[in-house]
Amino acid sequence: MLQISILAGKSKGQTRVFSQFPCLIGRSAENHLRLDDSGIWDRHITIRLKKGDGFFMETGSNALATLNGHPETQARICNGDILGIGGTSLQCWLSPAPLRGLRLREGIVWFFIGLVLMAQVILIYLLCR
Q: Beta strand pairing status for 54-59 and 33-34?
């Protein structure tokens, strides 16, 4: 559902996908995303999903965070936003949707195209007789 890429800090380059909310980010081992960089509190940020409204972040008490370079304590997160917490930066994306196999449907469509083609050939043969 929500994909977070770590752009700066000790865990730079990692990407995590979260599907259960609220999602806790911070230094504590109980968090869903544990970051051990300087300036990060035990429970630094909580990300919540509000149905129909999207993702929202709120900081823990006395914790500081930036959203696209602007200090925020509570804010709506949009696709591609960058969260700055302590010595790290996180980029938030909607995670890619899983693709379903379409072989059966494609096979059925090709079968009916062949059936229509065969019916046309038979019809032309009968009309030319």
A: unpaired
